[in-house]
Write a structure and sequence with these properties.
By secondary structure, the chain is mostly helical. The chain has helices spanning 3-25, 30-54, 59-85, 91-117.
């Protein structure tokens, strides 16, 4: 296992745990819980999909699973935006998660571009 692959496994897991902690701290209003559960689902599935990609049996399967990761990251970014725009959580509080979302997006875009170039 390459170091960067292991780092990304750890990083996506750490991101998922941060999402779980953020969800636990959400208010119990219907709006917060509905948006939070969507965020919880998408934010925790990134790491699961990456682990599946890591164990892919073919290059095509790896690319498909990394595409799934990217879709989940984009969805996570959307739910984070909604939580801020709906004034459920302040932009300042979510800034670190949003920044990590942006970085993960860049990483997975790079991963997906690499096989297409070779």
């Amino acid at each position: 296992m390459q170091k960067d692959e292991n780092d990304l496994r750890d990083r996506t897991k750490s991101f998922a745990l941060r999402i779980v902690r953020m969800f636990s701290a959400l208010s119990k209003t219907t709006e917060a819980q509905v948006l939070g559960k969507q965020l919880l689902r998408s934010g925790t599935s990134i790491g699961a999909n990456y682990r599946e990609a890591f164990r892919a049996r073919s290059k095509a399967e790896f690319i498909a699973k990394c595409g799934d990761c990217l879709r989940e990251i984009e969805e996570t970014a959307y739910w984070l935006e909604l939580l801020v725009d709906a004034k459920i959580i302040s932009a300042d509080k979510l800034q670190p998660l949003r920044a990590e979302c942006d970085e993960l997006t860049a990483i997975f875009v790079t991963i997906l571009k690499r096989p297409k170039q070779s």
